[in-house]
Structure formats: structure tokens, C-alpha cells
Write a structure and sequence with these properties.
The protein is an alpha/beta fold. It has two domains: about 55 residues, Rossmann fold, CATH 3.40.50.720; about 80 residues, Dihydrodipicolinate Reductase, domain 2 (2-Layer Sandwich), CATH 3.30.360.10. About 30% of the residues lie in helices and about 25% in strands. The strands form two sheets. It has a four-stranded mixed β-sheet with strand order 4-7-6-5, covered by helices on one side. It has a three-stranded parallel β-sheet with strand order 1-2-3, with helices on one face. Strand 2, helix 2 and strand 3 form a beta-alpha-beta unit. The model has no long low-confidence stretch (mean pLDDT about 95).
Amino acid sequence: SPEVDAVLVTSWGPTHAEHVLNAVTAGKPVFCEKPLATTAEDCLRIVEAERAHGRRLVQVGFMRRFDVGYRQMKEVLASGSIGAPLIVHCAHRNPTVPESYTSVMAAQDTAVHEIDVLRWLLDDEIVSAQVITPRATGKRFAHLKDPQILLFETANGVHVDLEVFVNCQYGYD
């Protein structure tokens, strides 16, 4: 519709791909809350549809790039004053999550924040990933693998470990 200038997608994650594709097909800029889609195939369809329009139309709503502390980190890393990063340790901890939270959501809804900010901070792409699930905490739901450790390597050889522990009980980190 010509009356629509842009589209905001803030619905439930599994519905995002359809809404984003509709907006891109209509040539409308779209801001999508994460996740962009819940499958790699849907993400690729969105990227291909955007490329067919010849310009960027999609932005995914990651907020950490705009936080003062992260921006200061980016400036220090970009200046080279501390040298090139070798390894990065990350932790994402929540006191608890609802029973509807699933193991897949640890990557799609939680770790995705660190993945986005790491790519931005390091100005580097992740080329390998591995997920390790250590012995589970007794404070979790039976269906949930918690905690999870994600291991990444970037194209420039930086090694990253990311702890996602969504039932750590003591507080948010």
C-alpha cells in the first residue's frame, strides 16, 4: 500500500519470516525484532528477496550496539591501542525463564545478542561454531539443556566462548 512507509515486525518469532518477506516483496523498509527467522532457509530467502531489490531494506533489532559501554569497547578495539583480540569470554545469565523456554531458544533468542555484538565489535565473521551442554543444573525444566556453552572461531582466528545459563538463580549477567 502506498500509505505504508515502513513495516515493524514485533510478532512471535516463528511468524517473522512471512511478515518480513511480504514487506520486502512490497519494497518497504522493515525493522524486525530478533530473530529474523527461525530457520537458515527462511533467513536466506529474506536475504535473496532483499538483494533482488538492489538495496538494504531489513534491519534486525539488536540494541547492544547502541549501549554506551559497548560503543566504548568498539572504540578501544578499533583504535588498536590494546592490540588485536585473541580470545573473548562472554556470559549471558538469567535468574530463571518460563517453562515455555526451549533449548533452541538459548541460541535464537538469547545467544544471538552476543553473536551480533561480537561480529560488530571484532569486525569479523564467525566461521565455526560448536555447542556443548555440560551437566545440567537441577534448577531447570526437564526439557531444557541448561547451561549451554557455545564455542566460536572467527575468520581472523579469534576464539570465543559464550556461556548461556538461563536458570542460574542468582540474577541477570
